[in-house]
Amino acid sequence: MLRKLLKYEIKATSRIFLPMYALLIVFALLNKFFMAVNSELLRIPRAIAATVFVFIIIGLCVVTLVVTIQRFNKSLLTDEGYLSFTLPVRIHSHIDSKMLVTLMWTILSFLVSMVSIFIMSIDKTTIWSLHRFVNELMRVLNKIGFNGYVLVLESILFVIIGILSVTLEIYAAITVGNMSSKHKLLAGVGAYLGFGVIQQIIMSIIMSTCEKSISQYFDSMIRAGELAQVQLAQTVLFGLIAYMVIMGVVFYFFTEWMLRKKLNLE
Q1: Which of the two ends of the chain, N or C, has the fewest CB atoms closer than 10 A to its terminal CB?
Q2: What is the DSSP string of 112-176?
Q3: What is the b/e burial string over 210-239, where b = at least 16 CB atoms within 10 angstroms of the residue's CB?
Q4: Whole-model pTM?
Q5: Do 25 and 54 touch, CB atoms closer than 8 A?
Q6: How far apart are CA 30 and CA 116, in angstroms?
Q7: Which regions span the lipid bilayer (predicted)?
């Protein structure tokens, strides 16, 4: 059933994202044309095209956030929620489908933005610089060895888990805000800010409790060689990933419990 929910979510959200991706690529090509011609007669159209291009990229970020909130709220916390919860589907599946589709569009939006920027800037110098960067990166990774590839993997996991954790925090805040009979959006924003304060308190307690041990560890690793510094980066990333996993799991099951026990569709 999760597959069907994913298919439905992708179909519903692709109507928003795909036209924006197409528009972004079109304006990237248009800007590339204006940059290649470089005529004073096209100065104003060139400025307009560049401005629109920037606004589309900013719009992608905003739209991703808005769609994340809108799809979760509309499908589960409004009148449409009556239909959603009559389906023979576990609440976990509803959360999973929306969370995974949000992750997909967030990553795709970033990749499409990078491709569009590359289209605008591509020339012999850009290709040479990119080739040099890739070669230098591979040289460093080969020099460091296994730990270097682990660091790259951890970095990718850090981004993915970070997106999922933030998404689940937004879902939890929306669900809490739905408990309010009035001003649901304002209550949701307040809940999100409250979650942030709680996390800051938790981090402060952890840091103050382990401050001396952490400081000594960092000092010893920084004075060590290159490999030890890579291991330090791995340790930091692992700690951040573990923290985000814990918070994500907490928000996930909190949201599921709220939807199961405290749902208010009035």
Answers
A1: C
A2: HHHHHHHHHH-SHHHHHHHHHHHHHHHHHHHHHTHHHHHHHHHHHHHHHHHHHHHHHHHHHHHHH
A3: eeeeeeeeeeebeeeeeeeebbbebeebee
A4: 0.84
A5: no
A6: 11
A7: 12-35, 47-69, 100-122, 148-173, 185-207, 227-254
